[in-house]
Write a structure and sequence with these properties.
heterodimer, A: 287 residues, alpha/beta, TIM Barrel, 8-stranded parallel β-barrel, two-stranded antiparallel ribbon, 38% helix, B: 266 residues, mainly alpha, 3-stranded antiparallel β-sheet, two-stranded antiparallel sheet, 13 helices, 6 strands, 52% helix, 12% strand
């Protein structure tokens, strides 16, 4: 398990600084696919950093929501990577990104039908069985919805967690982005999720855009600082879930390491304000 | 919702939107779907841009995007491992007629792809010079010793001065790039050897004799045969300084030896 502290996404441009300065940080997270290379500096530096810090591996390409079966070659690559680095957490997304052998490099949205739920749960079962570990699944940031959806996202996630025993990676930025894009109340969406099963939290920045008719649309681009609205929702989340390992996610316009450290320290101040974990395992589930 | 319908509309903005999608009342559903279209195209073009910075510098940002977009549409990724995406770009460029006025563009893409390959290739310990000197103390062994190469080694032959052009583009200032380019005849053929050293890729120019020698070794020829090929082209070919350099930059992982020589090496 990751420590209940703040962590940062590990970027190659920060490798040497990290090894030299040994910053005081709870953990690092990598995208699994970025390290699926034979050898060279990525493995060299990750190996050295892994020796000093807890590690979270976050997959972005497994396409758990695919209509077709899971990509076996990709599962094998994942298994090898997890065996090599023994991460404290492995997570993936409630999304799809491949179809008919083509990979689209984006987390595409799912319709929340019973049929989709069966397929997603089957795939999560297969992943957990093959990797022989529990995975955390991240709630998505979405821009559209589907007329054929039969339940809302929170009910879908609740059922998915219940059936497969997977955990929830609570992405507070995704939650906020989806709430704004679909005109919902972020706090209500938060409270509807299976918060007892949260295993990690993600925080990131979004880009605010306008439709041609002037309506606000938030894009989950991981290229800015965490917004005030997301900090506030994070505070609400911690009040409900207690402390959880929290990642500052930044994949675009990557600033100096100190800037990310400052955001991580800010997250730790929120964490420190929620020392008591409200859900003890022997208590009845609050949901 | 059919994923097939979704992805058809994803890559082709002319295609109708998937029937089942909706968005918040008052928003424009095509624009909301457009976020996905944009994410896919922009992120894949960004991967090509990141992998081919000098190709981009040679043709300019706008033309590069036009070309990369056409590449992405014709060659979308087949795997989620983005480090493997874009190998076909060099071949694509060679057939992309709007780029025909820059004849060395395809070879530059090949060089940039090879640099990325060299950076992420498997690790292997390099062969020490002392062992080779010991082995070659007996001149008869030249005819029996073959050498194996680091997985990161790539040898590229081009009809153009791709290494010089690439190096010219490593200057930070635009004016320095221009003055470096002014010194280069792009139509001068070059052979380049890439190898990873200290977690960085180093690039070495080989002259005609050196190129023949190294290529022969790389094909699995014995030292003797490789030497004869190089001397066939250039009678003054001097093996020693080249071998010193190749050992210094860690090109070899070891000798592939007949059994009796293997025991001698221990």
């Amino acid at each position: 398990m990751l420590p209940q502290r703040a962590g940062i996404g590990l970027k190659p441009e920060h490798f040497r600084d990290i090894l030299e300065c040994k910053p005081e940080i709870g953990f690092f997270e990598i995208h699994a696919e970025n390290y699926m290379v034979a050898g060279g500096p990525l493995h060299h530096f990750l190996g050295r950093i892994r020796a000093d810090y807890p590690l979270s591996i976050h997959g972005v390409g497994l396409s758990i929501g695919s209509e077709g079966g899971l990509d076996q070659a990709h599962l094998l690559r994942l298994k090898a990577l997890l065996a090599r680095y023994q991460p404290d957490s492995f997570s993936e997304h409630l999304a799809w990104s491949s179809h008919g052998g083509t990979y689209f490099n984006d987390l595409l949205p799912l319709s929340y039908t019973h049929k989709t739920l069966d397929r997603v749960c089957l795939h999560i079962d297969q992943v957990q069985h093959f990797l022989n570990r529990r995975v955390l699944i991240e709630n998505p940031a979405t821009y559209i919805e589907f007329v054929d959806s039969e339940m809302d996202e929170a009910d879908f996630i609740k059922e998915m967690v219940l059936r497969t025993g997977c955990g929830l990676l609570l992405d507070v930025n995704n939650l906020y982005v989806s709430a704004v894009n679909h005109g919902r109340d972020g706090n209500a969406m938060l409270e509807a999720l299976p918060l007892h099963d949260v295993g990690q939290i993600h925080l990131a920045g979004y880009f605010e855009d306008k439709d041609s008719d002037g309506m606000t649309v938030l894009i989950d681009h991981h290229g800015a600082a965490v917004s005030d609205a997301v900090w506030s929702l994070y505070d609400s989340a911690l009040r409900l879930t207690g402390q959880h390992a929290t990642l500052i996610e930044r994949d675009n316009d990557i600033p100096a390491f100190e800037v990310l450290m400052a955001e991580a320290q800010w997250a730790e101040r929120y964490l420190a304000g929620h020392l008591v974990r409200p859900f003890l395992t022997d208590e009845p589930r609050p949901l | 919702m059919s994923h097939l319908e979704f992805v058809s509309a994803l890559l082709d903005a002319e295609k109708p939107l998937p029937k089942e999608i909706i968005s918040l009342e008052g928003s424009v559903v095509s624009e909301r779907f457009g976020v996905y279209r944009n994410n896919v195209m922009v992120s894949l073009i960004a991967i090509i841009e990141e992998r081919y910075p000098v190709v981009q510098a040679l043709v300019g940002h706008d033309f590069f995007r036009f070309m990369a977009r056409a590449f992405v549409l014709g060659h979308p990724p087949l795997s989620p491992v983005m480090n493997e995406y874009g190998e076909a770009f060099s071949n694509f460029i060679s057939l992309f007629t709007p780029a025909a006025s820059v004849p060395y563009l395809s070879d530059m893409a090949r060089l940039e792809w090879s640099r990325s390959h060299a950076l992420h290739a498997s690790d292997a310990p390099s062969f020490s010079a002392t062992k080779l000197i010991h082995l070659l103390a007996d001149p008869d062994h030249l005819a029996r010793v073959r050498l194996t190469f680091q997985p990161s080694v790539v040898i590229l032959q081009s009809n153009f001065a791709i290494a010089s052009l690439w190096l010219a583009h490593q200057h930070e200032q635009e004016s320095d790039i221009r003055s470096a380019l002014a010194e280069i005849d792009p139509y001068q053929a070059q052979t380049v050897l890439l190898v990873r050293q200290d977690w960085l890729v180093s690039m070495h120019l080989l002259n005609v004799g050196e190129a023949l020698f190294v290529l022969a070794l790389h094909e699995g020829e014995t030292l003797q045969n490789a030497l004869e090929r190089a001397q066939g082209e250039n009678q003054d070919f001097d093996l020693t300084p080249l071998m010193v350099k190749l050992l210094e930059i860690g090109v070899f992982t070891g000798p592939a030896l007949p059994g009796d020589l293997q025991t001698r090496l221990l």
